[in-house]
Amino acid sequence: GAGVSQTPSNKVTEKGKYVELRCDPISGHTALYWYRQSLGQGPEFLIYFQGTGAADDSGLPNDRFFAVRPEGSVSTLKIQRTERGDSAVYLCASSLSEGSYNEQFFGPGTRLTVL
Amino acid sequence: AQSVTQLGSHVSVSEGALVLLRCNYSSSVPPYLFWYVQYPNQGLQLLLKYTSAATLVKGINGFEAEFKKSETSFHLTKPSAHMSDAAEYFCAVSVSGAGANNLFFGTGTRLTVIP
Question: Distance (Å, rounded) from C-alpha B74 to C-alpha B66?
Fold first, then answer.
């Protein structure tokens, strides 16, 4: 079946611009996660949704970052006033339900480059 | 707080040789532990996970890992390396309990297999 998909696969933007990154989770998965992976690092947790609500947004670095999941399926990560330090691969994952023992299935990521 | 340390950012082995990738964790509560593999331009794929059942966990592609509480370790092994094993490997930790869902990743180990 279809896995987690993310669009776009690559995004190049200029400093100060606004970007949106989209994640389509596996159908039926209620939990959705966003991670950020900087060069040479492991993925770093940003935010977690259970259904439509953000259950844990403690990983968002500042108020320029925001994510939504209005219908409990597709999620959009929004970054305002982008900075060069935001350049990274943004990963989305979904799992069948919440619970840390559940396998998280990862998408291929969106590579964001801020010039 | 939870964290993992992966010793060795790069490991090279000859084809057919033993693969050993090291992971040590830190957690104040019983952890769940995971190994993920990332092939170039692909999403993270779960190799195996420890969720407090058997301490020796067998995963896909011939990999296994042993949970050693006394050593706070969860090293990944494979008896005989194959060229297709060349990839980046990430160890991750999570914890049980309500609201505990996000994964904390190590910085990764890049495995090179020499023919």
Answer: 5
The stretch B3-30 carries a mean pLDDT of 93
Interface test with chain B among A101, A105, A111, by most B beta carbons within 10 Å: A101
**Nearest residue of B to residue A3 by CA position?**
B43
With CB atoms and an 8 Å threshold, state whether B106 touches A42.
yes
Neighbours of B114 (CB within 10 A): 11
- A101 contacts chain B (CB < 8 A): yes
Contact B2, B104 (CB under 8 A): yes
How many of the other CB atoms lie within 10 Å of CB of A63? 7
pLDDT tens digit string along B25-56?
Answer: 998 788 889 999 999 878 899 999 998 778 99
The DSSP letter of residue B105 is E
Q: Would you call B87 exposed, middle or buried from its count of C-beta atoms within 10 A (0-12, 13-18, 19+)?
A: buried
Coil, strand, or helix at residue B15? coil
- DSSP output for A64-105: TEEEE-TTSS-EEEEE-S--GGG-EEEEEEEESSSSTTSPPE
